[in-house]
Amino acid sequence: MGEVYRARDPALKREVAVKILPSFVARDPDRLLRFEQEAQAAAALDHPNILAVHRFGVFEGAPYLVSELLAGESLRQALQRGPLPVRKAVDYAIQIAHGLSAAHGKGIVHRDLKPENLFVTKDGRVKILDFGLAKLMRGQTESDGNAPTAPRPTDPGMVVGTVGYMSPEQVRGHAIDHRADIFAFGAILYEMLTGRRAFQRSTSAETMAAILNDDPPAISQTGANIPPSLERVVNRCLEKNPEQRFHSASDLAFALDALSDSGPVPVPAPPRRRAGRAAVWSIGLLAAMVLAVVAWFEIANQNSAPPLRISKYTQLTYNGHAGFLAGTDGDRIYLTTLVGASISQVSASGGEMEPVTSITLPIPDLIDVSPDGSMLLVMSDKKGVADPAPLYAVQVVGGAHRYLADAVSAAWSPDGKSVAYSTPDGNLNIINSNGTGAHKLAYVGGVAHPISWSPDERTIRFSRDNYRAIWEISSSGSNLHPFLADWQPSESKCCGRWSPSGDFYAFLGPGPAGPESQIYALDERRGLFRRPAKEPFPLTSDPIDWDRPFFSKDGKKIFATGATHAGELDRFDRKSNQFQPYLGGISADLVAFSRDGQSVAYVSYRDDILWRANRDGSDRVQLTSPPLQPISLDWSPDGTQLVFTASSPQAGEQAWIVRAKAGTPERLLPEDGGQEADPSWSPDGRTIVFATGVGGSSNQQSSFIRMLDLASHRITTLPGSAGMFSPHWSPDGRSIKAESQDQSTLYIFEMKTQHWSALSIGIHACAAWSSDSRSIYFFRYVDDPAILRVPVKGGEAKTVVSLKDFRFTGTLGLWFGLDPTDAPLMLRDVSTSDVYAFTLDQK
User: Fold this and answer.
1) With contact defined as beta carbons under 8 Å apart, do 674 and 682 qualify?
2) CATH of domain 567-832
3) How far apart are CA 400 and CA 798, in angstroms?
4) Per-residue pLDDT tens digits for 476-501
5) How far apart are CA 347 and CA 333, in angstroms?
6) In the annotation, is 112 catalytic?
7) Tell me: the pLDDT tens digits for 96-129?
8) Distance separating alpha carbons of residues 595 and 729, to the nearest angstrom
9) Would 316-448 and 567-832 be classified into the same CATH topology?
10) CA dist., res. 239 & res. 129, Å (int)
11) Considering the domain 75-261 in this protein, what is its CATH number?
């Protein structure tokens, strides 16, 4: 849409392309503003597989874009000559997937991916065109004869995209995310391989029906000679259910990279000349007997379960403050304790924990123990799990330390000569243990934490995606792929270690019931008739929450910390200047009070169930059940309903509403398949404000603040709210507070002036209005933990209560709230954690 001209930039002396956009864009100020924001986002991508946008502007009322000038042809033009060779199709597909991954990482979804919007330069580089524009353009219908383009409004329920490449959710007019691009990618890859469109009927309506109900003809049936593994990639992209597609474009790129790295199938050597018939029969009979015996033993041994089990539990510590185990030198176990962020050691046979006094680094976090036990990998002053910190190699005796790198996680190689470490930008790196030779091993598409080497040093495994998956890569940097991807695909898996022999791999996985992590093992032994098992088996199954198992030096035991989680709801008493148990010290957080102060709602800690009760805790009623996991909560002004956000691995964050006197929760926006977070009721009961577009670790989208008119069901977006989340009405209804995605700034939106003001208060969480709407309380959880209050009109934030010695916790890791008198509420962590040893029996 629009006209494109070749031009020359006189300042930089380069040829560029200038695209003049339709006049209707200029006539709509809101559309023009949103278009400019999207163009700026596309310009910020700076990726070799995305068209570089240099400038956006308006000249004499005509919006225009200046971009790089390309020489070559569109993918549509290339496909008009027929299917592409497999190697070229895979190469183009990898480039497209990398471009999509970069854009999705910035929160930009194309929504109109098709061969016309893919350009192949003369040197074989694929460029994605018009990124982000389809999301904003409206009205006209584009058609190349066989690919009609549907209207592109942004209103819910309207169809957006190009017929033939739209995902099923686009056809239905549902809210879409990055997985719609993955579906379109699958249709394009199908067409590159076969020369045929995946979904093509005589009319647009029939094509849409095919997308919803039919699978395209199998590639193997089209006459194309395509490897089955590549066909499986295409089929997974074209799944009707978005949850069954690749979770991200980076995962898709890795799968294609693995295919491109695969060598040809070895050709069997020609048979040798025949020996004498009798000798052949004798040798063959003997070999058959030997193989039969070996096969019987291997198969019988492999099929009987389990090959490894725990025969004895031994509790090694009893102080309740054990934290995260890092490793052992054979005699001692090293760990970071929960209290004081100090490094301790305990005998492998049990006893008192003792501090490792030789480590003088500030706020040390122990990561790993060297194979010979003489060195420790320690991070200093680490803020959060995914945050980088200085990494040091520290001598156990003497405490001499050497800086290695800024890292998120790290692990020694089995020979102790190298250290693998990860960085926030998704890279996995290697450095010599003496601090030299640092180099990038591979880009792994996410933060790798924690990391583990196989005993033979050939393989590295690590957790990724906020502990939701385990990935594997060779120590040479090739063959990156998900590990155990088909086992419990929607559940967390992380933190694995090999046995010293490499026969078994122990890791954390989901418990049979409840949120507690359990220890699993995978049999990776090999033999003539034995292949590594595909299914792991549980080693533990109990109410204890286990963390980061590792094997003893002789492989006969597994060490792990086990925690029993509990919280105590406390209220800050201003008279005594102390926190005291509230509501009987129940284990609950996300506490919210009705407007009249007579009722209270809360979420019970660890089982994530929403309850309603009288203010004194009596007459308790359960309002939700798993798998709904409430993570935010607000009352209707009349006290009859509650609106809350629930999180799930399948649906992400969605808003729900439930009657306060018991009932079945219902979606706040049942017609919308999108994501809503932090809903808050206006004091007059007419409007609910919420954030939308907030993604998880693999889909970090930019959020917006939106308002739902409960009478008309009309949804509007607060102007200037891009990048904000966690909205909440002030008690007087005059303002809405929101927060920046980096949680460093509070924004106040005045309903009368329709303008935002900003309060820069530093890293914080759980901001809440005061009852008089004049101040905002917030929770500073880094450096010097405290609850502070800042005036809405600006001014210095003042400490209400220090949390320096308060062990806090919560459903989301931490939580803070206010009672009707503005007294702070906190959930005190009264969990216990100790070190255990499991004696193993191996079959």
Assistant:
1) no
2) 2.120.10.30
3) 41
4) 999 999 999 888 887 889 999 999 99
5) 6
6) yes
7) 999 999 888 888 888 889 999 999 999 899 999 8
8) 13
9) yes
10) 25
11) 1.10.510.10
pLDDT, mean of residues 773-794? 92
The DSSP H or E segment spanning 64 is strand 62-68
The tens digit of pLDDT for each residue in 623-681 reads 998 888 899 999 999 999 999 999 876 667 899 999 998 888 999 998 766 788 999 99
Structure tokens at 233: 């990639």
Pairing of strands 459-464, 451-453: antiparallel
Q: How far is CA 606 from the centre of its chain?
A: 21
DSSP result, 221-257 = GTT----HHHHHHHHHHT-SSGGGS-S-HHHHHHHHH
Q: Single out the residue of 388, 390, 387 nearest to residue 379, CA to CA.
A: 390
| CATH for the 316-448 domain, from 3.40.50.300, 3.10.580.10, 2.120.10.30, 3.30.9.10 | 2.120.10.30
Angle between helices 228-237 and 178-194 (to 10 degrees): 140
Interacting residues of 531 by C-beta distance below 8 A, sequence separation 6+:
none
| Amino acid code (one letter) for 9 | D
Q: Which long-range contacts (CB under 8 A, 24 or more apart) does 612-620 make?
A: 612/642, 612/660, 612/661, 612/662, 616/583, 617/583, 617/584, 617/586
Q: Which of these is catalytic: 9, 112, 545, 589?
A: 112
Mean pLDDT computed over every residue of the chain: 84
For the chain, domain boundaries: 75-261, 281-309+486-564, 316-448, 567-832
Length, in residues, of the chain: 843
Which strands sit side by side in the sheet containing 324-328, from one edge to the other? 324-328, 332-336, 343-347, 354-355
Question: How high is the pLDDT of residue 297?
Answer: 45
Would you call the peptide bond into 450 cis, given omega within 30 degrees of 0 as the criterion?
Answer: yes
Q: Which of 567, 596, 594, 597 is nearest to 582 (CA)?
A: 567
The residue type found at 190 is Y
Using CA atoms, how far apart are residues 345 and 111, in angstroms rounded to an integer?
54
Peptide bond into 627 cis (omega under 30): yes
DSSP code string of 376-428? EEEEES--STTS-EEEEEEETTT--EEEEEEESEEEE-TTSSEEEEE-TTSEE
Cis bond upstream, residue 271 (ω within 30): no
Alpha carbons 495 and 519: distance in angstroms, whole number: 10
Beta bridge partners of 808: 828
